[in-house]
Amino acid sequence: MVLLQPSQLLLQMHAHASGISKDMLPGPYPKTPEERAAAAKKYNMRVEDYEPYPDEGRGYGDYPMLPAKSQHERDPWYSWDHPDLRKNWGEPMHWDFDMFIRNRVDTSPSPVPWNTMCKHLFGFVGVMLLMFWLGETFPAYQPVAPKQYPYNNLHLERGGDPNKQPEEEKHYEI
After folding, report:
1. Alpha carbon distance 144, 37 (integer Å)
2. Distances from the Cα of 3 to the Cαs of 10, 12, 15, 118, 156, in angstroms?
3. How far is CA 63 from CA 41, 119, 124, 144, in A?
């Protein structure tokens, strides 16, 4: 029986838990047309559609440069193999796939032009600022009249003389 040190055990467990295989990693950058055709076949693409990332030393290798489109732009009514990702099995994923899922960036064209959105926003903010300024400059208060009480303005309850009748107070004019 071989006993492993905890660090060796952790490394061995980590090696078995890794999720990506060597076949899934991008290969070297294709330099010849034959290498391009092999890389296109590897990623289930036509040779005409296959375009690798530029070889700038960033490690993309032969991975295809896919258009930067979010999943919102893909047909929601199509019968996808993975409907939540709007992706079919074997289809290459964008290098920055996590940026283009449906709860992140939406690259679909806006139904309203940008200048119209800005005009509406700044118009609304301008009108609200004008209203706030007018309300601050010309305050409006509710009209206030003296409080009216029954029984001759609560003459007795307010300490009036019970033997003396107060004069009647009218709060209206006809």
Report:
1. 87
2. 13, 13, 18, 69, 101
3. 12, 42, 47, 77
From the CA atom positions of the chain, what is the Rg in Å?
39
**Backbone angle region of 170, left / alpha / beta, with phi > 0 → left and psi within -120 to 50 → alpha:** beta
* Residues near 81 by beta carbon (within 8 Å), at least 6 away in sequence: 87, 88, 89
Torsion on CA atoms 34, 37, 38, 43, rounded to nearest 10 = 160
Q: Is the pLDDT of residue 146 over 50?
A: yes
pTM (2 decimals)? 0.53
Mean pLDDT, rounded, for 29-58: 91
Coil vs helix vs strand at 70: coil
Closest CA to 100 of 74, 78, 131: 74
On the question of pLDDT at 111 being above 70, the answer is: yes
